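Homework-ish question, so no full write-ups if that breaks the rules, but can someone show me the predicted structure for this set?
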Amino acid sequence: MDKFFSPESVAVIGASRNETKVGYGLLKNLIDAGFEGAIYPVNPKAEEILGLECRPSASDIPGELDLAIITVPPGAVLSVIDDLGAKKVPAAVIITAGFKESGPEGARLESALLEKTSGYGMRIIGPNCLGIIDTHSRLNASFAAGTAREGNIAFFSQSGALCTAILDWSQNQHIGFSKFVSLGNKSDVDDVDLLTFLGNDDRTDVILGYLEGVRDGARFMEAAFETAKKKPVVIAKSGSTAAGARAASSHTGTLAGSEEAFRAAFAQSGIIRAESIQDLFDFATVFASKRRAGGGRVAVVTNAGGPGILAADAVEKSALTMADFTKETVAVLRKGLPETAALYNPVDVIGDADADRYRLALRAVAADPNVDMLLTILTPQAVTKPDEVAQAVRDAYAGVEKPFAVSFMGGPRVAAAIDAMSEDGLPDFEFPDRAVRALEAVHAFSQNAKREKETVERFHTDEAVVKRMLSEAAASGRLEISDAEARKIVSAYGFRTPKSSVATSGDEAASISDEIGYPVAMKIASPDILHKSDIGAVKVDIPDAKRARTAFREIINNSKDRMPDAHIWGVSVQEMIERGREVILGVSRDPQFGPLIMFGLGGVYVEVMKDVSFRIAPIGSRETDAMIREIRSFPLLRGVRGEKPVDLDALRESVLRLSQMVTDFPEIVEMDVNPLMLFPGKEGAVALDVRITVAEVKS
Amino acid sequence: MDKFFSPESVAVIGASRNETKVGYGLLKNLIDAGFEGAIYPVNPKAEEILGLECRPSASDIPGELDLAIITVPPGAVLSVIDDLGAKKVPAAVIITAGFKESGPEGARLESALLEKTSGYGMRIIGPNCLGIIDTHSRLNASFAAGTAREGNIAFFSQSGALCTAILDWSQNQHIGFSKFVSLGNKSDVDDVDLLTFLGNDDRTDVILGYLEGVRDGARFMEAAFETAKKKPVVIAKSGSTAAGARAASSHTGTLAGSEEAFRAAFAQSGIIRAESIQDLFDFATVFASKRRAGGGRVAVVTNAGGPGILAADAVEKSALTMADFTKETVAVLRKGLPETAALYNPVDVIGDADADRYRLALRAVAADPNVDMLLTILTPQAVTKPDEVAQAVRDAYAGVEKPFAVSFMGGPRVAAAIDAMSEDGLPDFEFPDRAVRALEAVHAFSQNAKREKETVERFHTDEAVVKRMLSEAAASGRLEISDAEARKIVSAYGFRTPKSSVATSGDEAASISDEIGYPVAMKIASPDILHKSDIGAVKVDIPDAKRARTAFREIINNSKDRMPDAHIWGVSVQEMIERGREVILGVSRDPQFGPLIMFGLGGVYVEVMKDVSFRIAPIGSRETDAMIREIRSFPLLRGVRGEKPVDLDALRESVLRLSQMVTDFPEIVEMDVNPLMLFPGKEGAVALDVRITVAEVKS
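A: Not a homework solution, just the prediction itself:
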């Protein structure tokens, strides 16, 4: 990967003298950016372009070549790769479009391309991309207009057009890039490679990305987790609501779209989700300062009440809190500020504040141990001197290690002050609420960075049973496994299920009942009878052996009377389960991230209130606990109005066992444990009804 | 009010030669803005300021004076008012601070001021404000640095500092103002006056405001409703989360903060709530075009897939929908666009699109009857010519009456194009999702503008009963009215309550039971026995007269045994109410908006899920229906899993009767009808338990 960003020599294959061609723009960008290595234009029809000697083909380039940028038409790409392969060129950026994105024929061309390059051990970025920029090595191997300012933010994007827009937009912003990568079709180098590479890149402190999808969800999550512990990874993901319409047979399937999978995957890997492009860069500017927050307590210093309240509102709506100053801080403020100033957070230094008043307030709150981050607000009032206040902010910033954000609200009157502060990496936001959002992201990252990777402990389970039952079902074409069979499957993974056995005589019904313990429930066991209670083939609350015998007879008789043609296996005798709190555990399989586990309270909470949480399996105890506590109705599990809490340990264990099972058996594509009945205290949980859908066996 | 904004003569009382003084800045602003009427500096210590003759006092000004701007110290303001009053000056803007905002002494001064000005029939803006600007009459009567660009947006703010920030900020934006008003302490002219005035102002097409609170909620809502039907009213309200901590005795009290009251009041009056200052101006720029939307169906035309998906995501998350083009539109697009273009919404005209391709696509979708609004996205790719595309957008815009928003993403390469489009009032947004938010606001306004004021019909009720019971309770110091008494109160307003009567003998218990109909419930009637069931003083499901007699005896005996000192009125015999769906109706009284009605489903839905909706009373049927449908759990009332729906007519009527009651009786400060039991079909509703808290009688 290094050869992409710090090559010693670069060739432009398809360089052009025609100013309207990409092959010209690219070469010009390379030269203009001040790249210090060798640049070789390649074009059989030219002798010289932009003052550089032009070679007929890559093989005519003297010595080693580190990086090739390819802009020839798609039909010529494969032979270019052969030339490069012969020269053992390690890296190529393929700008050329007309591959996978253009249809089946292009997709075939892309496969052929990939086969060739992997044969040569050559890594490629693209095809169908804008190119790459490395500001440190002064490499602008893109056909974008203009280049990026130098900085410590890396940006990668699946959309080349977005790259051009962002590059152009960034000209007017206080934002600098280390690397700028247009990924194109991601045929070889993808987000996973890039996350890992950028995670280890000393010149990159913040990683920004725009994604439309990922190729391998599990690898992506792993790479993201490792990188996001080291530096902030902020990603905007589009297409988040489009999936909705997917038809599905289970509750989980209905509620679990690709948006839920992405949201869970991002949260589990510590990726900060940007809800908009605005967020992406707002977050980046504050992350670029490299400061981490010890906690989420914000101090606000302002010279105007209104914007101070707006900031406090934004803080209260966020995961942050308004800091409570120590007595010492309040005393310092009281002594140094005028009587009409507000001494508690937000600190209002009043409209006529000069830089010294700001300085005093900022120094005091920045030193306060109860303050984790600072937001300074300024409105350009009659006597306000923004430049001098900016210096006070810079001084306070230099004195501590805490993250700062600034909102100098206004236009021309505050512009120079904002420029000056940006020299120290002090991020300014047009409006205070955006500053608060950005500080919230810093807090989230600082929390993530502390997380250790969870080890997922394995339960001792009986995989062989499940394997056999699943493959039997699949072999016989039964893709929907329900009821008794599905309960046996989860039993093999340690779920408690109602005790149950099929009796073929009244005596047997009595002896099974004796064993289960009374009361029991009995119902006809028949593949042909669906509406069992309608025909009197269900009896509940059977209190003793005698009545078990009677019930057996009645159920058999009723069934034979009403459904004379039904095949009857016998009568199923079941343990009666007392009422507890019903929850649902579900699983669906996301095309990108695999097994997506859903949790929610049973009945209307899932169906009407959509009160559910999601995680990508496998998960450990910490994530499981977080998942359980995430639903709004969690207080019902902990007990309201003096109820005893349900057995949360049993619930956690159930989720963990389910996670293990669907990780072990990828052929399970959908699954509902609905309800899982939870009992109070330490009384455990029982899976009452289980449905499993398996994938069709590919022949 | 006209005299404030279109005066023929203006005096600056307290004009100064000292450049650091407000009295200098103000006069200079007046002169610099090019005001064409007479300007009179007033200052006894100067003969001339900034080339204008200075008068010793207002009385020395020749002829009539329309407007005075006062910047003298607070102690001198009253005598200035006397001078102005003598001259019959109709309007004054009081810049001077040191009034209500500075403490009790200032508050007294403000009262004295107000008494004087109302005596003279003089309207005042302020005190403690930045001043006012009217770009049309070229009046800059403020001490802000610089002035506002001319336009059709009016802005008023309770925070002067925010005014200065916005004025300065707007210098770099495509935004123009008609009027700019700093309201200060709102001692006389307030938001209500301003909303009404601006509603009728021909030069104002959009009204923006920043508020921290309102003085008279009911008048505010009325003025806002009338104005918001005519033109968009967008208000940012701060302090939205601060209220939380209020202690309250009822469910409603706990859940109903001032934020909920504001949210309800804004929605009911058709005010568009801006969640941030960014929103305020994003919405304003699209509203400034004065176009209304026939519906919420958006067409997106883009030259890049990624930003198109981002826009579609934003649309799906909003109240808008992506338009479904007609066959004709798709045919036109198919014919005119390249094969790789996306013909369905978002229309992707592909990265190499020229202006003609945009023109064709824009014209086609703009003419489509299934399209209500358009968003055009451009990224500056290699061959993109933003200026030419801008012209295509302007042409399409001129051809239809639909609202447009534009997101030309980038910096220098798109700046000229954005400038050009802004000449036609075409609003550009840095990022597509912000454009979508703004279009959503246009849709909301267009819907509001269609609403007629609801007439609230009165039910025939027995106010006299309620009046008597409430005043008896208040007189005897019982501020919490519960149980039987409260049920009688709601009965007088037409609520059905369980039939109930107190029996003093077994025979009486039997005859009351006969009358009510069996089964009945009986419980001890005593002011001293709280935990009735604990001592065996409650019996339910009593099936006949004989057992009613027995129950009477047992209840009396148990009570006398266990609570020998309790005062016993008898035994209350009650109708047994069958189970239905429990909902809660509640009322709390907001200090600014008065009676705030809450609705939610009973039990955990309110307590744990906080699934409630709010309205300010009085409300009519339309708002009531909206309120009922707003809760997430509404499907439970309509019936899930084949249940019959509850009697929604009875629910609506209950809310309307409650609204009438709490409007009639402002002394009711908190109230819960919990539960109101709703029955299926047309079987009505019964108020099972009612609690009312009345205000302390002021002596």
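Now go work out the reasoning yourself. Hint: Chain A has four domains: 2-238, 291-450, 499-575, 581-694.
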